[in-house]
Amino acid sequence: MWSDIIKGFIIGMCASAPLGPIAILVLQKSLSEGHRAGFLTGLGACLVDSFFAIIAMFALASTKALIEENKSIILFVGAIVMIGMGLKMSIGNPFKEVEKRKSKKYSSKDFFQAILMGISNPGAIAVIFALFSSFNIDLDRNGFNVAPIILSLAAGAAIYWFLFSWLFSHFRTKFRLNTIIWVNRALGIVLIIIGLALLAEFAIKLIFN
Q1: DSSP code at position 20
Q2: Axis-axis angle for helices 108-119, 21-33 (nearest 10)
Q3: CA 11 to CA 57: how far, in whole Å?
Q4: Half-sphere exposure of residue 144: CA atoms within 13 angstroms, side-chain side
Q5: How far is CA 199 from CA 80, 115, 207, in A?
Q6: What digits encode the pLDDT tens for the residues 132-164?
Q7: pTM (2 decimals)?
């Protein structure tokens, strides 16, 4: 059991590691708004990963069927979400947002943005399932035995995003304000490109299917 808990922790870090849209969002928040905003965004991704892990362990077969049936809708929604966030990042001034938030103790907006982006990318379920298989974790368990593995996976993901956001938030002191704004715009453009690619895939599926 302890070996599976350690494996779950490693899986949480591995599932978070790829540089995808959520990582770009966390990077943008960390550079423009600091460690707290970046980490809160990462926690949203952590929650989604944990939710997908629960699905992978309890209801993978039925969930895969549901995803396949609604794949086009999920693809379209994910594309719109990414394009919208990309436009906001590339056009907006992140430092105006920082001024607005100075009086706030936290911003739930960052957290829910990551949740929305994560849910719109259900392919992450397949990634987590593949990691479970690679680490030889038995998915045929009851609730009591699953809970420690899910918690360790969440802890691994949370620690990864804490370190990721802390590292890049410290880089912001090395850059001039204009440099951070241009980095912010570049990351926004990357998200727009990803979203447009998803829209193109959606259009192709719609035309040929």
Answers
A1: -
A2: 170
A3: 13
A4: 0
A5: 8, 20, 12
A6: 766 777 655 555 577 888 899 999 999 999 998
A7: 0.67
